[in-house]
Design goal:
Chain lengths: 432, 574
């Protein structure tokens, strides 16, 4: 049986203009179809363009190439029948719960009576009974997001867009809201034909979605599509569930690690490798955890994420930084401490700093480069702009800032060089 | 709530841009044009008074009421200006690039200069009648209020949270509905705060502009300001005290019936995820809320607004949105008009200067400007030395803060010029040096900004920091240097900026003061402008105004702006 598609996204491309005529490519050749009765998850790391895609679908932004069609017509602005649930709730603080829910109906110009009836029905459905006259600031995060859901559901949208709707909530509240939503959806009680869910939480995607599209970053692309063939309600502890989670972990890490290795292979040549900000403490913390029982130096990434209570978005950058510094190796869905990583785990603080410093010199070209420049200069100091300008030849402005910030925090830990933010000056001197 | 610093302080660039220059030319050109016209407009009736002013105590409430009404009307006009000007500037980047620098220059022009160059024109609108003078008075108050209200509104419109706007668009609100349901509510709390700030300036200028002489034109509109002018001429000290009393009552009523309800009402528009501990309360708001009559009166209006939201059906994207059409033609037209205006303005200024002014005149004015500058800086420094420690002491004690803070705000709202005669009479009696002793008048009304900002800063200092410093035994000078002063520094800077701006304006009134037939005169740019206004010497008015604006803008840019950003970057606790 082929069900008609609600949404067609074909070859979509989105770029932001950068200084000097360059552009930052955020989405490249993205394709997506949403069929009736489906929940499709967009899963990726932050910066992979999944939220940008959602905004294109919502009609809040326009693509530079490709096409988006909703029920057969091109999307050129916010379309009636597409409603969105926002990550930060986006409730109007000066309107009560009821007024917030009624807002979208008022804009449709419905008669007052119908507006009230539908709003109350939606409030009832989402479990907000009794909160009608409360203001958002009086509610807990979970209740606020329920208002967000009610406000979206009340307009009876064909497509519901959800932009990381649970990520601002605590774990228990988020789970409670997820199961409620899945249940309502399963019972067919929601006046909605299809859902697109943006998330960076792998388990959330496996729990809720029929299909998951994995996004790779720089530029954002759909790297693979995974069909979750499990009946609802799903059991997080079932082997099949874990199998899907593992599969996604492997898919998500493999590509990144491969690219990291490539970069590193020709690394010593250049400083153009963007550094993602991870604090030395996070690295040390993960190394210690991995070195200890039950892992003893080798672990399954999903297990680490679960047991260390880390989101994918938090775990991956740390793991990759460890890979970059050759303190660990990522292989498939596993992470394994290297010899150096193990030594780091056993060392005291001074030895750790030394190991870290040496690793920076041999594995992070930017750190080595800055150190070299400082060594060569008679004053042993150099202004920030000296390096920032150089980096900006290779990467976008904010990526350059980020890379510098990262290298400063790493170098401070390794005592490789120091940096004075007030004067924006790199130097070899520490206050004496 | 934070006081908003002037435009040039918020500006990102240190050096003025082409737009700043164009704005300066346009404003100065406007003043020159009016000054030129004023010299040639015939004004047969040179003295305008509503009726003879007497100092009967029974007349005072009536006068106070008239003064209060002028304020209300001016506030209404300022609001209309705010909603249009600021919205235009925020919504249309092309217009904004000029409108915002224009606000900056307008903020720096002394209020009295606006009055002196426009008054003849206003009078010519309705020759021989009081209406023109009333209009001029309202216009003066408007120029004292509108700019910072508009700037506040503009800033708010620019910072509406992206998600709220997107939610509005997703749910199909038209741009008209988005403005009234999202943007205006979001901008309301800061706007009300700035209205209150503006009101303080307003009281100051309403009392001045009620009784003023520009050349041969004498104006005395019935009101508290004129009452004081008469009292000064008659050396009637009791009458001065009566005026002070009346002013206190008027401000109190305004506070209780208008601003407190407004602040309490606007609390719901605050964006904050946490319920606040101290929700502002107002008995008047309770009364308004419970009143059936008010409901009946506002209901049709509310209905109309609701209806208007649907008026333009939201442009749901499927039919194509009208994006900015190719605007190249509009662009060319816009720049052409601006270039012409700028060129014409520059020509008028050149012609005016060439015909009327010598370099010697300019040198005199600039020299006097430096004297006033020194006066402003010294007095701000003195006020800071006094009020910063006191403010910190008060701010760290919640009970004391609850008492002192409203008093400080109230004092800031009180028009200090009403108190001038008290000081001046003392100077006359003791034959003191006016160059020194008139100076404190400049900060008499503005020093309170420093006090209540410092109090606000100290009272928001995190409890943990104070506990920590106690715990480590940080005491004495070390405590002031490392804990208290840095914590209040950003607040102090904002207060000092406001106080300094106000002092420049006050210098025109403070550097020349009279008691009976004696007129005291200090050397300075303020006295220069004041004398030029009184003698109707428009060339000097224009020159003095230009120099003072220049001083204000330059001091803002090279002194306050770096200090402000340094404070925000280094000491602001978020």
């Amino acid at each position: 049986m082929t069900s008609p598609s609600l949404l067609e996204v074909t070859h979509v491309r989105r770029a932001f203009p950068r200084s000097a005529g360059e552009e930052l490519l955020v989405l490249d050749d993205v394709n997506l179809t949403l069929k009736q009765g489906e929940i499709v998850g967009l899963l990726g790391r932050s910066g992979s363009g999944k939220s940008t895609l959602l905004r294109l679908i919502a009609g809040l932004a326009q693509p530079q190439g490709g096409s988006l069609t909703y029920m057969g017509a091109p999307i050129e602005g916010p379309a009636q029948g597409v409603a969105m649930v926002f990550q930060g709730f986006a409730l109007f603080p000066w309107l009560t719960v009821l007024e917030n829910v009624e807002l979208g109906l008022e804009a449709l110009g419905l008669p007052q009576k119908e507006i009230r009836a539908r709003a109350l029905a939606a409030i009832d459905l989402i479990g907000l009974d009794g909160y009608e006259s409360a203001y958002p600031r009086e509610l807990s995060g979970g209740m606020r997001q329920r208002v967000g859901f009610a406000r979206a559901v009340v307009v009876h949208p064909n497509i519901l867009l959800m932009d990381e709707p649970f990520s601002a909530l605590d774990v228990l509240t988020a789970e409670n809201l997820r199961t409620d939503l899945v249940e309502l959806w399963g019972n067919g009680k929601l006046p909605i034909k299809g859902i697109i869910l943006v998330t960076h939480n792998i388990e959330e995607a496996v729990l809720m979605c029929d299909r998951v599209l994995l996004f790779s970053s720089n530029p954002g692309r759909v790297s693979s599509e995974i069909k979750i063939d499990l009946p609802q309600p799903r059991d997080r502890t079932s082997p099949q569930f874990e199998h899907y989670v593992d599969q996604i972990y492997v898919e998500m890490t493999a590509r990144r690690v491969e690219r990291l290795r490539e970069q590193q292979a020709r690394a010593n040549a250049g400083i153009e490798m963007p550094l993602v900000h991870v604090s030395p403490n996070q690295i040390a913390g993960l190394i210690e955890a991995l070195a200890a029982a039950p892992y003893d130096g080798k672990a399954d990434l999903p297990d680490v994420a679960y047991e260390q209570e880390l989101e994918v978005d938090e775990l991956f950058p740390v793991a990759e930084a460890m890979q970059l510094l050759r303190l660990a190796e990522i292989e498939g869905g596993d992470i394994r401490l290297t010899h150096m990583g193990k030594r780091f785990a056993d060392a005291d603080l001074n030895e750790r700093k030394e190991i870290f410093s040496r690793s920076l010199m041999s594995n992070v070209p930017l750190a080595a480069h800055i150190r070299r420049v400082l060594d060569e200069r008679a004053s042993h100091s150099a202004p920030k702009t000296r390096f920032l300008d150089e980096l900006e030849n290779h990467m976008a402005e904010d990526a350059a800032e980020d890379s510098l910030k990262t290298v400063v925090s790493w170098a401070r830990f390794g005592e490789l060089f120091s940096y004075d933010d007030d004067a924006a000056l790199f130097s070899l001197e520490n206050p004496t | 709530m934070k006081i908003l610093p002037p435009v040039s302080i918020e500006a990102r660039r240190l050096l003025p841009s082409r737009w700043d220059l164009l704005a300066a030319i346009l404003v100065l050109g406007f003043i020159v044009a009016f000054a030129d016209a004023s010299r040639f407009l015939v004004h047969p009736l040179s003295s305008i008074t509503g009726h003879d002013l007497t100092l009967n105590l029974s007349d005072l409430p009536g006068y106070a009421l008239r003064t209060a009404l002028r304020m209300l009307i001016a506030m209404g006009v300022s609001l209309v200006f705010t909603f249009t000007y600021a919205t235009w500037a925020a919504k249309n980047p092309r217009a904004g690039s000029l409108l915002v620098p224009l606000l900056d220059i307008l903020q720096s022009v002394p209020i009295l200069s606006f009055l002196s160059v426009t008054i003849v024109w206003f009078l010519s609108l309705s020759p021989g009648r009081v209406l023109g003078a009333e209009l001029a008075c309202v216009f003066t108050i408007f120029t004292g209020q509108a700019w910072n209200m508009a700037f506040s509104f503009y800033q708010s419109l620019r910072t509406v949270p992206e998600e709220l706007t997107e939610a509005g668009r997703m749910f199909g609100l038209s741009s008209w509905a988005r403005f009234w349901r999202i943007e205006a509510p979001f901008a309301t709390p800061p706007l009300i705060w700035n209205m209150m700030m503006s009101m303080s300036g307003g009281w100051f200028f309403v009392t001045i502009s009620e009784a003023i002489s520009v050349g041969k034109t004498n104006i005395a509109l019935p009101g508290i300001g004129s009452w004081i002018a008469v009292a000064i001429a008659q050396k009637n000290l009791p009458a001065i005290f009566e005026a002070i009393g009346a002013m206190l009552v008027v401000i109190l009523i305004y506070d209780q019936l208008l601003f407190r309800p407004l602040v309490a009402w606007a609390d719901r528009f605050r964006i904050s995820s946490e319920p606040s501990d101290d929700v502002p309360e107002s008995w008047a708001l309770q009364m308004y809320r419970r009143s059936r009559l008010l409901d009946l009166m506002t209901a049709p209006f509310e209905q109309m607004m609701r209806w208007s939201y649907r008026l333009r059906p939201a442009s749901f994207g499927l039919k194509g949105v009208t994006r900015d059409v190719d605007s190249r033609v509009a662009n060319i037209l816009w720049y052409a008009i601006l270039s012409l205006l700028g060129a014409y303005g520059a020509y008028r200024i050149y012609e005016f200067g060439h015909a009327n002014l010598t370099w010697g005149d300019a040198a005199t004015a600039v020299g006097l400007g430096f004297i006033t500058l020194i006066r402003v800086l010294v007095l701000i420094a003195l006020a800071s030395l006094i009020w910063t420690p006191i403010g910190i002491y008060v701010g760290l004690r919640p009970k004391l803060t609850a008492i002192v803070q409203p008093v400080a705000q109230f004092l800031a709202a009180f028009p200090a010029n009403i108190l001038f005669p008290l000081v001046v009479s003392v100077i006359v009696i003791f034959e003191l040096n006016p160059d020194i002793w008139l100076s404190p008048l400049m900060v008499l009304g503005t020093q309170w900004y420093i006090l209540f900002n410092v109090i606000a800063g100290a009272s928001t200092m995190p409890k943990e920091l104070r506990d920590a410093s106690d715990n480590f035994g940080v005491r004495g000078w070390l405590w002031w240097k490392r804990v208290a002063l840095p914590a209040v520094f950003p607040y102090y800077v904002t207060g000092a900026i406001t106080a300094s701006g106000g002092s420049w304006n006050a210098s025109i009134v403070a550097e020349v003061a009279s008691w009976g037939t004696r007129t005291l005169r200090a050397h300075g740019l303020g006295a220069y402008i004041a004398d030029a206004v009184t003698s109707g010497d428009f060339r000097k008015v224009v020159l003095g105004t230009a120099v003072m604006s220049f001083f204000v803008v330059v001091v803002n840019r090279i002194l306050w702006r770096p200090l402000y950003w340094y404070a925000e970057r280094k000491f602001r606790m978020t």
